[in-house]
Amino acid sequence: MRLPLSTNRARLLALTLTATLALLRPGCAAAQSSADESGIRAAMLLNIARFVDWPASKLDEQHPQFVICLLASDPVDAATEKLLSHQTVDSRPTVIRRVGANDSVEPCHVLYAGVASRKTVGRMRSELERASVLTVSELSNKVAADQVLGLPAIGDHVHIEINLQAAQRAGLHISSRILRLATVTP
Amino acid sequence: MRTISGCRGSLVLLLCGVAMVAGAQQQDPDALFRSSLEDLTEMKISASSFARKTEEIERTPAAITVITSEQIARSAATNIPDLLRMVPGVQVAQMNAATWAVSVRGFNNQFANKVLVMVDGRTVYSETFSGVNWDEIDLPIRDIERIEIVRGPGASVWGTNAVNGVINILTKPARRTIGVDVGAKVSNIMARGSVRYGGALGTSAEFNLGVTGVYRRALLDDAGQRAFDGQRQMRISGRLDWRRTAQDEVEFTGDLYRGSMRTELAQPPAFSGKANEDEALHGGFLLGRWTHRGATESGLQAYYSRQYRQVYAAAGLVDTYDVDFQDHVKLSPSHDVVWGAKYRFTADLCSSANRVTMQCSYFNHLGALFVQDEIRLSSKLTATLGSKVQDGSLSGFQVQPSARLLWTVTPHQTLWAAASHSAAATSIGQTGIDADQIVGSANGLPLIVLLDGNSAIKAEFVESYEGGWRGTLPHHVSFDLASYFNHNTRLNSLQSGTPAFSTEYGPSIVIPTTLVNGYRANTAGVELGLAWKPLPTVDVAAGYTWMQAHLHQTLAGPVSIENPWSSPRNVETLSASWAAPRGWRVSGFLQNVGKLSGSVLTRSSAAPPREVPDYTRLDLHVTHALARRFELDGGATNLLRSWHREFGVNAGMVDSLDVARAFFLKASVVF
Question: Is the confidence metric ipTM above 0.95 for this complex?
């Protein structure tokens, strides 16, 4: 049977095959790992927290622990809770605290808000800024305008969004290493 | 930790079985917490409440491609068929403003009967006309979370007409649609607007509600005039996701749509009135699904849907009631079993006009059982054996088995092979059509084909033999190579009788024609997909498809195949996207589609008949994020030529139209 390819197509195919074979040399393949969505988000949050400078007032003896507060969390966040406890940030052990809309957020370093509390974060904004709390949720900063950190899942990946103005208002300094990987939202 | 949830609708889950759950549970949380932030941003979401698994695709013994919402956002497409152009092995041809022919592995036609299309687990294949009316599922593509495409048979699990492919469209869970989303797109060929609101009801439920409207302008005919087509449509849709307990989720989805479409009529000679008509379409659905995740995972789904549409002046109203249950059991460390049962009842009402009649079979039943066992033969070798057994009023009793083998050569490369037997569903149109149409002239008299359905027609069979190789390579390259050989038998064909003089429509020559199983075909193809991420901001993908068919007539006399091959021998695709600084993004899509073998370009009697020629499509567009909430997107589709033809004669009745170059501007705001 005649090879049913025109000369140009045959060349294109040969080129593609050559390129493929050239890439097939032995060696370690690119790491294409995968994990649970809430696991990735929790690991990201902790990783990011390690590259955020809180004001000295949040790092004194009155704050011996790194407090992650969960606001209106739901079962998805329960998985996050399990993962986030028993870690360390700047040699401080992490602790998880569930808070309500009327509780004080002063002890919190991080406030992880459930999707239902988008508006609550807005209402608590001045208190959260005064207490230098890194506010975070799985919502995009496009819809959660008052939070500092958005970790939305878009397609197959969890993305990092930083609201720099909100971070500055809260007195948080975010390392340029994070900003390189993040989408900085105005 | 939650492993798989909301995965009920996922094809990957069914094809992989429960092994995926086990695989995900092996994930070491400490290792995750030791990962660098760079790795975390590139890590794929494998198992979560709302994203389906993707990494497991590399361990699936079938040719699967997934279009993610990231790829959808980068595309210049506005509708689902245009999105599917990027997938190797999928044939997409636009016929007119609101009609597409979409098939997998050949035999493409508006009434392509070998592909099963589902939206969130609901079958949208039309039993009346065969094929899929893509305008009936014309949801805003911003609402789509992912599209999973299985090339090759999925009949052992999904049933009839999952012969050459399954396309599963999954919309975004309400959780990912919180806020207000307003989008609008205008171009010289269409306009579309949509508004969606998503909110939370307490901490355990979210909902969304959306409304969308679309206007499609008529395309141009051979004379450069506005042709017969064009469409207007409105759609409202909603969704409610409720996590009742940590183990139970309940989901409700639904939509309602209404529209009208301009269509050219197939005219009988005695009928001298209008050539065009506004054809109505409307319908909707309501679906409920309960998923339980305990020691095993099970799901129960039920839906009601209604479709009303006129096609070439014949009308069909279909009410569908569908109940589906499935369960995963890990029988032993080496046996993962997925089984399920389905019952579907459809009530059809057909009307007729202008010499096109449908004789409906009013009540159709379909019952099916499937079981699939994934057997771990060794640490690197897995066999998957399964079959679906079904009985129904339209396709009769069918057993559709498949056997698959997966060899994990290295952690990053897998080889797979499969053999399957599947059956294409017989449509009501094939058994009950009565269409009389002019096809030309002879001796100065009109030549009329009197087409009659055949209630004795049998379901088409396909034996498929497939093999594939896929994996990841250094330099952020992944590849997916698949090849197949299909032996198709009992293909639907048209058998013509002796021409005779008739005066029924005035003096004319009539040819009685009926549907028979009159052809067999051997088809083969190779599909290659490559993806490369040279930089964190750059995505490149390439695809190549080669496919060919040899058709053999099995009945003597004047017999022609009903759905010709109508597919290109070669298709090359290249797409690239660059996320530039300051919120800019540039994306392009280039595709070369060979001439459609076995197609007929036009009904006009110009000799010799021509096939639909090859074309090259280039889409280019630039996206810019303005401030936090606004995004503008401008560009062009089909940039290289002012027009091109993508398909020929549609079902022997109507010529396809020219797909025009289009410049578009899109704006969206989210808050």
Answer: no
